[in-house]
Amino acid sequence: MSTHPFRDVVIAGVFNARQARVLEGETSLSISIEAALGALDDAGLDVRDVDSITGSLASDLTFDLGLGPVWQSASALGVPAVVEAAAQIATGVSDVVLIVAGLAGVYTERASTAPWTRPNNEFVAPYGMFTAAEFALIARRHMHMYGTTAEQMATIAATIRNNGHVHPTAIYSGRGPFTADDILASRMVADPFHLLECAMTSEGGCALVLARADRVPDLRHRPVYVLGGSSDRIGPSYRHAPAWDLRGRDPDSPPNGLVGRRAAQRAFATAGLTPDDVDVLELYDPFSFEIIRQLEAFGFCGEGEGGDFVMDGTIGPGGRFPITTDGGLMSYSHGGQTSQLLQRVIRGVEQLRGACATMQVEGAEVALCSGGGAGALFNDVMLLGAERP
Amino acid sequence: MSESFTSGALVPQPATIPPPYPSAHSAPYWEGAKQGELRFQRCSACGHAEFDPSIICRRCGHRELVWERSAGNGTVYSWTVVWRPQQPSFVVPYAPAIVDLDEGYQMLANVVGCDVADLAVGLRVTVEFHPVSDGFVLPYFRPA
Asked: What is the pLDDT of residues B121-131, one digit of tens each?
């Protein structure tokens, strides 16, 4: 039996800094520092232990925290950064890797949609496109192909928002509970998406620390392991029309509508697991429909079956595959361009530690975490485990 | 809210929306629009219709792409209606759609000249042109 590549890698620390619709007085750097120090403290490590950093403000953090000299990588934040950190450690490039995201004070012109949702591409911007419209074009095509309904999508939004409703530090804590009808009664943003089917915009920060296991003999929390992970990217976000059928040169490759399938297959292969082995799905939820799409792309149900899959309690509390248990981008936080991508992984870690104050999936051993979606032409997938692989 | 979000006239945007910023590779497309022509590129090796403008055939890798004129007829592949604008210069509702052009490529544009309730996958559409700022002309599609 061969050794798992990430056998000696642990996710040692995670931390969510404060999240809010607006973090008065904070800057992206200040909230990033709060996140970085929080994750190191959670791991029981010191800034002097860090020998690698990833993050949008990595240079500033390196200097201000006095980390240098360190390896500084430019991984896409979210799942790719975590998988690449694990690979750095597994290959001996680094021993302790700090991953940090944070944003505040950027979205100030509120008459427009958030700046990271608005492309400046010449073939997209003049048609008033922004993230919700991009993802709506994917959802509409699926509705056309498979008869997916507004009620099915609203059920997803209600499920996720209710998870956030009971979460004590979600930005929209206490805002529910919601029924599918409540979701459908909110105003339309980009048909078929009503307001409550869309991610919020907010500010916040978060960080993770990965380490070689022998560097953290006295971990404060149960260690969590990287069982596998990969990333599917098929082009720049918000430049090409996000058609379901877009694909690369290989005509047998999965189309954009199933982006994430290759990554999921790769993650499951590395882990030696199948979807049946997963206990909790920390799915990225920019818009309601994206959950249906990911469930199909990752193999939790057949193509076109995602709408029915979400209707019988399977994805809710106590269901076989509970999703996005902190309220996700819709209710917990969407702290800018990247924090929310890492937060899916952080929530997966919290689930496997058994440390969630709300919506803890009892005895969870395997978590799937994702990031991205077909409207943006990318999807990343990773599997976390409570047991050393 | 009294709006039903199921009806509303779809019209071209005011000329005050931000203009496109062409690159050297896309300039022929925008020059064509000013002349009332919808242009795309075709690979001189494999015949693949290419959009948006590229410097390499995305299907076969050939490096020679030739500009052609589209008849401007196509079919709606997917659509949405935006009720919360990207920025205040846009007037809602507007309807971004992916159009399958008869020449064999897809492009994104807004559908106008009909009601929100008329939108459907499979709707046949034809191009029309409307000016925006800085002398640019923007292709739209209306029901054929």
From this structure: 999 999 999 99
Smallest Cα distance from B40 to chain A, Å: 13
The pLDDT of residue A1 is: 54
Does residue B99 belong to any structural domain of this protein? yes
In a domain, B111, yes or no: yes
Other CB atoms within a 10 A radius of the CB of residue A64 amount to 15
What share of chain A in percent tops pLDDT 70?
100
List of chain A residues whose C-beta atoms are within 8 Å of the C-beta of residue B80: 133, 136-137, 140, 190-192
Residue B58 contacts A, CB cutoff 8 Å: yes
A110 close contact with B: CB closer than 8 A: no
C-alpha dihedral (A158, A159, A160, A165), degrees to nearest 10 = 80
B3 assigned to some structural domain: no
CATH number for B91: 2.40.50.840
Is the per-residue pLDDT at B3 higher than 70? no
For B135, which DSSP code?
G
Backbone CA torsion sign across A340, A342, A348, A351 = negative
CB of A124 within 8 Å of any CB in chain B?
A: yes
- A93-142 residue pLDDT tens: 999 999 999 999 988 888 888 888 887 789 999 999 999 999 999 999 99
Domain around B16: 9-143
Q: Tell me whether residue B4 is in a domain.
A: no
| pLDDT tens by residue, A6-58 | 999 999 999 999 999 999 999 999 999 999 999 999 999 999 999 999 998 99
ipTM of the complex as predicted: 0.97
pLDDT in tens, A68-83: 999 999 888 899 999 9
Backbone dihedral region for residue A111 (phi beyond 0: left; psi -120 to 50: alpha; all else: beta)? alpha
How far apart CA A204 and CA B74 sit, in angstroms, is 44
pTM of the model: 0.97
CB of B113 less than 8 A from some CB of A = no
Test B84 with A129 for CB contact under 8 angstroms. Answer: no
Candidates A111, A306, A90, A334; CA nearest to A201 is A334
Number of domains observed in the structure of chain B: 1
Q: What is the CATH number of domain A9-107+201-385?
A: 3.40.47.10
Q: How far is B2 from chain A (nearest CA, A)?
A: 10
- Among chain A residues, CA nearest to B16: A126
Q: Does the beta carbon of A132 lie under 8 angstroms from any beta carbon of chain B?
A: yes
More confident residue, A347 or A220: A347
Sequence spans of domains, chain A: 9-107+201-385
